[in-house]
Amino acid sequence: MINSCQLFGQIFEEHIVSLFALDAFYVDAADIDGDGDIDLMSASRFDDKISWYENNGSQNFTEHILTTNANHAHSVLASDLNSDGLIDIIGCSRDFNNIIWFENLGNHQFTEHVIVTNSFGEYVDAHDVDQDGDMDVLSASFFDSSVFWFENDGNQNFTQHLIANNATHAYSVYAIDLDGDNDIDVLSASNQDNKIAWYENNGFQEFEEHVISTNAMMAWDVEAIDVDGDHDIDVLSASSDDNKIAWYENDGSENFTEYIISNNAMYAHSVFPVDMDGDNDIDVISASMDDNKVSLYENDGEQNFSEIIVSNNSIIAYNAMAIDIDNDGDNDILSASGGDNKIAWYENIVEGCTNENSCNYNLNAELEDGSCIMIQDFNGNGDVNEDNFLDVQDILLIIAYILNQSELNLIGCEASINNDSNIDIFDIIQIINIILN
User: Fold this and answer.
1) At 4, is the pLDDT very low, low, confident or very high (cuts 50, 70, 90)?
2) Which residues have C-beta within 8 Å of that of residue 385, sequence separation ≥ 6?
């Protein structure tokens, strides 16, 4: 008898962290309290709240409210802003035009500081832009269509610098060395001009705009990573009016070619690149509002992407990202959805044989290695596949099992024809003897 286990999945199990982040808009994750596990953060707009959620090590989360005065809180980000070894938290309050940071004092204590009070910040990033050894802050400023960076003097006094003022309704900003010249460049997504742009740093923090695309219709998000493994930085975007998740291949000279990952993410709002299945290529996560969907697009290694729906019950899904939340060696997914006020994480169940009653159960097995074949011959008559014929097919099944058993260091089980508790060549000999006799 051959029993099929559950062959497919990356399977994701939802765990709700909170249903009380009103119009939950943004999430991030880091070890905030330094206890070796991953804590979570959220920004929610209707309650003007920025919170962090303490992980007790078993993925039970306790909310700690940092503020309920971040009017229309849009963004939250973890970064050690003062270089003291503790993770601080940065946030945006659009209606108060504030970018704020919460200094981590240790022992779950935080002090709020204002970085700037005249910025319509939608989205923040943090990077050492001027490479002077401290963390600077960047923002996409919506109503004045600008991209800024805020220079940290080393004592967390910040000076505002304009990068661009023609990113119409700037929404997202991301800092990275895009051209490989060892300084920090900046990317933006702006949704009224449908533009993805990068700003080349000349090494002196003077920035020159280069347009990647004006075809990201209502662009909301931009990220960058080496998608195709050719050692240069590619770009990704999420745009809502074309329901599109796209990546832009860098030819090594910062000429970009667009490839569509999906045009079925209805009102796509966020994009996040990460290796979700541990196969050393870059997969992509999206959150889309109109279909309440969090999706994973699995890369086959040739930049062909297959969609796996992680959730279609994240009502008005605004944001999603990935990190190993449960410390089991694979990346999980975290989301914020505004229609249900929900912060949730989705546990990544590694694909493999998930029938624990199978004699060759192996949670970490890959589909291709065939380890989800369960061979059983309880009556010992040699008819392993129970087709009422004792023939070469039964022998081939045992050979296949032996090969996988050797690879996976599995032990035998009740399929052993000669009842010695091992599935091996002697079972094949036993079948041959039965056939001959």
Assistant:
1) very low
2) 1, 2, 393, 394, 397
Contact call for residues 62 and 56 (beta carbons, < 8 A): yes
Long-range contacts of 77-84 (CB under 8 A, 24+ apart): 77/28, 77/41, 77/124, 77/125, 77/126, 78/28, 78/29, 78/30, 78/32, 78/41, 79/126, 79/135, 80/135, 81/126, 81/135, 81/137, 81/152, 81/156, 82/134, 82/156, 83/133, 83/134, 83/135
Cα–Cα distance measured from residue 376 to residue 383, given in angstroms and rounded to the nearest whole number: 9
The two tokens of residue 12 are 């994701």
Q: What is the DSSP letter of 136?
A: E
- The full length of the chain comes to 437
425: enclosing H helix or E strand:
helix 425-436
**Residue 418 to residue 411: CA distance in whole angstroms:** 15
Nearest in space to 177 (alpha carbons), one of 249, 229, 226: 226
Q: How far apart are CA 190 and CA 187, in angstroms?
A: 10
Q: Which of 293, 284, 347, 282 is nearest to 316 (CA)?
A: 293
What is the phi-psi region of residue 388: left when phi exceeds 0, alpha when psi lies from -120 to 50, beta otherwise? left
pTM over 0.70: yes
Chain segment 372-413, per-residue pLDDT in tens? 444 444 445 556 555 566 666 666 666 665 555 443 333 333
Q: Which two tokens stand for residue 194?
A: 């449908």
Distance between CA atoms of residues 73 and 95, nearest Å: 8
Residue 375 structure tokens: 């061979």
DSSP letter at 316 equals T
* Distance separating alpha carbons of residues 204 and 131, to the nearest angstrom: 10
Q: pLDDT, tens digit, for every residue of 214-269?
A: 999 999 999 999 999 999 999 999 999 999 999 999 999 999 999 999 999 999 99
Lay out the sheet containing 24-30: strands in order across.
Answer: 24-30, 39-44, 49-55, 61-67
List of residues 6+ apart from 215 with CB closer than 8 A: 194, 258
Q: What is the pLDDT of residues 39-93, one digit of tens each?
A: 999 999 999 999 999 999 999 999 999 999 999 999 999 999 999 999 999 999 8
Question: Cβ distance 295 to 269 under 8 Å?
Answer: no
- Give how far the C-alpha of residue 14 lies from the chain's centroid of Cα atoms, to the nearest Å: 15
